[in-house]
Amino acid sequence: YKEEMGMAARVLADLARIQFRLKTEYVITDGTLLLKCWIMPVCRIPVAEITKVEDSHNPLSSYALSLDRLKIIYGKRYSLVSPDNKKDFIAELQKYNSDIIYVSRKK
Q1: Is 94 left (phi over 0), alpha (psi -120 to 50) or beta?
Q2: Share of the chain above pLDDT 90, in %
Q3: Are the C-beta atoms of residues 50 and 93 closer than 8 Å to each other?
Q4: Of 17, 28, 32, 33, which Cα lies nearest the Cα of 66?
């Protein structure tokens, strides 16, 4: 019985990861960055308020699917994301706010 329950739990966890991956997206609309994830409320970040984007491996729960993340800093807050193409994502943000600074943590 324990073996079957463990297997069922693994299947449910796998299904949740698949659903999570399919329903996570980052969209810029009307100067606002929308972070969307099926299990979390939509996060709205005015791009004009973003001051810095930096590489991160912070494991906190977030709108990020991997640990290869970007930390978006705005005001006294931050959000973590993991876009497929970091370079393009940052460039798109900088189109709306050229004052955004990118800090790479790679050595």
Answers
A1: alpha
A2: 55
A3: yes
A4: 17
